[in-house]
Amino acid sequence: MQTNREQWTSKLGFILSAAGSAIGLGALWKMPYVTANAGGGAFFLIFAIFTIFIGLPVLLGEFVIGRKTQSGTISAYQKLAPNTKWDWTGRIGVITCFLILAFYCVVGGWALLYIWKAVTGALQGLSVGALTDLFVTTSNDPLQVILATVIFIAINLFVLLNGITAGIERANRWMMPALFIFLLILIVYSLTLPNAMDGVSYFLQPKFDDLTSDAILQALGQSFFSLAVGVGGMITYASYLKRDVFLPSSALTVALMNLLISLFAGLAIFPAAFSFGIEPQAGPGLLFIVLPAIFNQVPFGIVFLLLFLVLFLFAALTSSFNLFEVPVTAFLEKRPAARKRVLLIVVAIVTLLAVPTSLSTGVLSDVTIFGKNLFGIADYLSSNILLPIGAFLIAIFVGFRMPRQMLLDEITSDGAFRFKLFATWLLLLKYICPVAIFLVFLQQLGIL
């Protein structure tokens, strides 16, 4: 164990940071669109159930590993299962973080560019077609995308240089409440627009006829992707957690906050989209084309667009803090006093990966791997392959490799109710979660 190891100063700081790492791009630019087009309220209900019974048990498993070992994701497995290959679960997590950051930093850079365009008035008065052309031009401009990507990485470096408490915890303490407040402001604004309730109905009205087997598998996959399990990020954050924090309630709070943000995002987007008859999209098209087109049609709309862009930037940053911290903490185990040097090495590696990725829609668009550009292959490998493998291995490790009494000591206290909850959690983790994650893995590969 590291000497003089940092710890979160409070349970709230830990929860806000853990929730921030889970609430990222998917909650804001993918989840609302998928919900509306895959069953509406029926899909969201299934997603919520899967989040509590599939994603939450694995999240709690990561919390247990991290706090028990007080170590990074590689050393944690070496301590709990010495002289085995289980530490490769941690290594896979580190590799996954690097791959996610390769494209995550690019999207964060796009957000910075569009915040600047919103401030300077470059987005005002543009039609959907003009905004589409602008995004293509912007994302293909090598100087702009490289500079923006590097600035986004530099913001992460500035925060992470200050460590867990003065850096990550302090940043999340004001960024996460700001994210909630900004979303609430946008919801109130969207609901006051004409025909807003039609958008709410489209988003949340239960459409059980649209709830296909593929949609159910989508909800299942989204349930653990949205909690950021599988990369060891929650192991890393929990390794800085004090012994007096009750892990199940912390995990449940993170899961509920993630569900709430996913719901809020849809309530902010769909009423506004329906008011102006603009078809919502998923991914970059939503943030950089659809929303600017919507807000261009209302008084002071640019202010609300800027609010949403800043909100999106905060969500990207709170997630990237965690993704950076996984390899940093893992590499620090053998050199605990060298945080600055280790962080600079990690930042250098991410920069070497992210800069070419930022050029993948422009000058490097001809560079493909298995038919995908650099952005697409980084996204596919991390999201469709490595994340499900990581989540599957974590569920198996906690459920079958860690001694029952060790788990019991870590997450329970006196009381029959909590013991029953423990037994249910272990049952889900050992038998239900691995099967569910395996099905998602097959679906991501196109086998199901």
TrEMBL record:
<feature type="transmembrane region" description="Helical">
    <location>
        <begin position="421"/>
        <end position="442"/>
    </location>
</feature>
<keyword id="KW-0812">Transmembrane</keyword>
<dbReference type="InterPro" id="IPR037272">
    <property type="entry name" value="SNS_sf"/>
</dbReference>
<dbReference type="InterPro" id="IPR000175">
    <property type="entry name" value="Na/ntran_symport"/>
</dbReference>
<dbReference type="InterPro" id="IPR047218">
    <property type="entry name" value="YocR/YhdH-like"/>
</dbReference>
<keyword id="KW-0813">Transport</keyword>
<keyword id="KW-0472">Membrane</keyword>
<feature type="transmembrane region" description="Helical">
    <location>
        <begin position="298"/>
        <end position="321"/>
    </location>
</feature>
<feature type="transmembrane region" description="Helical">
    <location>
        <begin position="12"/>
        <end position="29"/>
    </location>
</feature>
<feature type="transmembrane region" description="Helical">
    <location>
        <begin position="92"/>
        <end position="116"/>
    </location>
</feature>
<feature type="transmembrane region" description="Helical">
    <location>
        <begin position="176"/>
        <end position="196"/>
    </location>
</feature>
<dbReference type="GO" id="GO:0016020">
    <property type="term" value="C:membrane"/>
</dbReference>
<dbReference type="Pfam" id="PF00209">
    <property type="entry name" value="SNF"/>
</dbReference>
<feature type="transmembrane region" description="Helical">
    <location>
        <begin position="252"/>
        <end position="278"/>
    </location>
</feature>
<feature type="transmembrane region" description="Helical">
    <location>
        <begin position="380"/>
        <end position="400"/>
    </location>
</feature>
<feature type="transmembrane region" description="Helical">
    <location>
        <begin position="41"/>
        <end position="65"/>
    </location>
</feature>
<feature type="transmembrane region" description="Helical">
    <location>
        <begin position="216"/>
        <end position="240"/>
    </location>
</feature>
<feature type="transmembrane region" description="Helical">
    <location>
        <begin position="342"/>
        <end position="360"/>
    </location>
</feature>
<keyword id="KW-1133">Transmembrane helix</keyword>
<feature type="transmembrane region" description="Helical">
    <location>
        <begin position="143"/>
        <end position="164"/>
    </location>
</feature>
<protein>
    <submittedName>
        <fullName>Sodium-dependent transporter</fullName>
    </submittedName>
</protein>
